[in-house]
Amino acid sequence: MAFRRLIPSPLLGLLSFLLLHPITTTSTVGAGTRLGLIRNKPYSSNIPVFREAPAFRNGDTCGSPNTTGRIHVAMTLDANYLRGTMAAILSMLQHSTCPENVDFHFLAGDFDSDIFLTINSTFPYLNFNVYHFDFKRVHGKISKSIRLALDQPLNYARIYLADILPADVSRVIYLDSDIIMVDDIAKLWEVDLEGKVVAAPEYCHANFTKYFTEAFWSDPDLVRTFQGRKPCYFNTGVMVVDVDKWRKGDYTHKVEEWMAVQKKKRIYHLGSLPPFLLIFAGNIKAVDHRWNQHGLGGDNLEGKCRNLHPGPISLLHWSGKGKPWLRLDSRKPCTVDHLWAPYDLYRSSTLSLEE
Ligand SMILES: *[C@@H]1O[C@H](CO)[C@@H](O)[C@H](O)[C@H]1NC(C)=O
Ligand SMILES: *[C@@H]1O[C@H](CO)[C@@H](O)[C@H](O)[C@H]1NC(C)=O
Ligand SMILES: *[C@@H]1O[C@H](CO)[C@@H](O)[C@H](O)[C@H]1NC(C)=O
């Protein structure tokens, strides 16, 4: 058995003790040191350690949290973005009037019990489910985009939400892992979809042309896709989805069809976003821009710092190449990253052991 990472020697002593006296639950050890993820078998994965978030309880106005009043949130779980996900969860709970009414649905590629333990030890009171997203589902369907990170199978999991979520979930808020909620999520949840399948902020001043290639715009059959609607850009990192309508309309299949077209003839540059634009742009329920201050990660190609757009803010989104936790760690944060830092629950890199 070897230690994969450098562990300070007092911790090493503690670890040897714990290895000799294995415990399966989270426990408080020594001078308030909270050690999650201690278990009686060595780690197989590379999961960071987080400190425990406080308990968030419903306010008096919430009523009894029962099935009718639940708010369903779906996110992906990936060891590389876990620090972002944890911060995002904390931000949602902290700004909710009725945090106990929120149900989290996590989609994970590796169906690893360490992930349950990590969430349990960080948020002992969280209502959540973890679902396995089988990468085979998108095998052979993903085309290379301009950025490797966009080609990860888990990025495509949002397309399969309607298949993966339990049948009694009829509406869901899908959120990327690089977001911070600074408002009550219930306000976004209650949006009137007015018969649309998707609600999101839309950006009609953005140059829509650039999301598709010359090959697309020069093919009259393809261009006809947008006939009868005024397509506007929207970001798929924050969406309210009518899951029932999605199921009935078989939109999963429609997205997959566009992915097949892309495989044959490169019609766009980005990953999972353009098929959503092809199907829904100009036909979504537009919500206030405050619900997605996107692009805070910086430019897709250059990775520059971005400032906040003017106007009220309910959700901050570090879409783009740069992630706040990486920039903070490298001591070269952008100004907006200081807005993310208070939600960081990261404690240390994995106390990981190998056989
Ligand atoms: C759920 O809660 C609401 C408000 O507290 C209540 O009116 C309703 O009857 C409850 N439904 C069930 C199924 O318990
Ligand atoms: C996580 O916590 C829930 C609720 O307390 C419990 O049912 C579940 O078994 C726990 N999972 C793990 C892996 O500890
Ligand atoms: C929009 O983008 C396309 C493709 O990049 C470019 O050719 C066009 O000039 C742009 N239009 C405006 C109004 O900026």
Keywords summarizing the entry:
transferase, 2 domains, two-stranded antiparallel sheet, binds 2-acetamido-2-deoxy-beta-D-glucopyranose, transmembrane, disordered N terminus, 12 helices, 17 strands, signal, Spore Coat Polysaccharide Biosynthesis Protein SpsA, Chain A, alpha/beta
Report on the structure:
With 355 residues, the chain is α/β, with parallel strands linked by helices. The chain folds into two domains: 2-49, no CATH class; 52-348, Spore Coat Polysaccharide Biosynthesis Protein SpsA, Chain A (Alpha-Beta Complex). Helix content is 26%, strand content 17%. The protein has twelve helices and 17 strands. The protein has helices spanning 9-20, 82-95, 113-122, 161-164, 185-189, 214-217, 220-223, 243-248, 251-264, 273-280, 324-329, 337-340, and strands at 2-3, 27-29, 33-35, 49-50, 71-77, 102-108, 127-132, 171-175, 179-181, 198-200, 202-203, 233-234, 238-242, 285-286, 315-317, 346-348, 353-354. The chain has a seven-stranded mixed β-sheet. A hairpin with a 3-residue loop joins β2 (27-29) and β3. α9 packs across α10 (273-280). It is globular. One 2-acetamido-2-deoxy-beta-D-glucopyranose binds at residues 113, 116-117, 120. Belongs to the glycosyltransferase 8 family. Residues 1-26 form the signal peptide. It is a single-pass type II membrane protein.
